[in-house]
Structure formats: structure tokens, C-alpha cells
Amino acid sequence: MYSRNRFYINREEQRQLRDFRILLAGAGLGSVIAECALRMGFENITIIDGDVVERSNLNRQNYTCRDTGKAKAPALQERLTSINPEATIKSHCQYLTTGNMSELINDCDVVINAIDFTSEAPFLLDRICIEKGITALHPYNLGWAACVFTVNRESQNLSYISDDYHGFELKFADYIIRQLRQQGYDIEWFSSMIEQYGKEALSVPPPQLSAASWIVAGICADILFCLATGKKVKLFPDFYFGTVH
């Protein structure tokens, strides 16, 4: 099924992708990343999420109306298996916690850390990944753009921005805006949105668009390809950025 990957991905690289083990920590934005990776040839994917599909997810996540009310992890597993029944797709319908995190991420080569910043979980997951020598990717939906951080033993971690999950999205956005302005990007559209979002209650989820979900999926697929085939990747505090605006 990967004949159209030819010239971009050779046979040996295709084999490396097939055997590369991806753990998806969070099946929201991660749901789009998972399908993009699977269609490229990554056939070993584990999904961990305790959340259920809501109608508000459907503007940007890889689910349909028929999935509403279902647990995200098995719903995504079913979709991915329908695309490639020969792939090894596992799902755990539970949240990653301090009690189960270390055990659940043992059998993987990379973790997609797509956990919401509603607790210390994203920070803890990074720390455990670093201890185990596992690379972690942090994908972010910026509406008309997307960015991805790569964290490992040689990089900085999220505490470089802040070690407090309260209001982390705004602190992260401020960091991105400052860095992109230094690089010459016109980022005023994003700055304006963040200013409006900052006026809302911090308990309100940030606005996100489907465009960025697909951009971030493409960026992650590229990073995953590089990791699986031994190529260099950018490490945080450097980051990958893509935009259509």
C-alpha cells in the first residue's frame, strides 16, 4: 500500500518506519497525527486517552458524529485499523497519571506528548521520557499555523518556558510570538488572537482550527520519519513551525 511513497521513502526506510513504535499520549490533536503517520507507513501505534468524543472536537480532531460520546482511544483505534488492518494498533482507555505513566510508556521509541495542560502530567511525562531515553514531541495547534517541540536528553524541556501548568498556553504563546518575531515572521494575527483569548477565563480551552491540525500532523510525520531513520531533528528550545497565513 506504500507504492506511492516511492522516491521519497526507500524500501529500507519503509521497513524502519513499520517497526518504529509510536505512543500517542492524548488522542485529540494526536488523532490527526496518528492517521498521517499510519498512512506514511508507521504501523506500530499505541493510543492512551481517557477522554470521550464531544461535538466540539469535530472541527479539528479525527472523529465523526457517529463517534460522539465514545471513548477516544478505542474510536481512533477502530479508524486506524480500518485503514490498515495489518498494523499493530493498541489503545488504553485511561489517562496517564503518576501511578501508571512509567509502565505504560515502556515499549515505545517516541512519545507524542499531546496531553492538555490541566495538570502536571505533560511535565511529568517529559521527565520520565528523558529518564528512559525516549524522545518526546509536543505538537501545538495555532489556528492558521502549527509548531512542534522535540524534547530529549540533549534538549531543554518545558520548564524552559514555565514549570507551572496554570496558564501555560498563554506563556507558551508569548514565547512563540517573541521567537517568530525575531525570525522575521508576521505573527500579528496570532498575537491578536492571544490578546482576545487572554481576556477569557483561563478555564476556557484555546481556539483551534482544522488547518493547523493537518499542518502539525505533517510536521510530526516528518520528525517521526527522521527519528526512525536516524536523521537529525531540531531540538527544543528550537522548534518546527508551519503556517498557511
Task: Write structural notes for this entry.
With 245 residues, the protein is α/β, with parallel strands linked by helices. It has a single domain (3-159, 207-243), classed as Rossmann fold (3-Layer(aba) Sandwich), CATH 3.40.50.720. It is built from 8 helices and 7 strands. The chain has helices spanning 11-19, 29-40, 72-83, 101-104, 121-132, 168-182, 188-198, 210-228; strands spanning 21-25, 44-48, 88-92, 110-113, 135-141, 145-151, 240-243.
Helix and strand arrangement:
Layout: H1 11-19, E1 21-25, H2 29-40, E2 44-48, H3 72-83, E3 88-92, H4 101-104, E4 110-113, H5 121-132, E5 135-141, E6 145-151, H6 168-182, H7 188-198, H8 210-228, E7 240-243
Parallel strand pairs: 1-2, 1-4, 2-3, 4-5
Antiparallel strand pairs: 5-6, 6-7
Helix pairs in contact: 2-8, 6-7
List keywords for this structure.
about 240 residues, alpha/beta, Rossmann fold, seven-stranded mixed sheet, 7 strands, about 15% strand
In short:
The protein is an alpha/beta fold and about 240 residues long.
- State the separation between the terminal residues, measured CA to CA: 33 Å
Strand content: 15-25%
Number of helices: 8
Question: Order of strands across the biggest sheet?
Answer: 3-2-1-4-5-6-7
CATH superfamily: NAD(P)-binding Rossmann-like Domain
CATH class: Alpha Beta
What are the secondary-structure elements, in order, as H or E? HEHEHEHEHEEHHHE
Choose one word for the global shape: globular
Q: Structural class of the secondary structure composition?
A: alpha/beta
Number of domains: 1
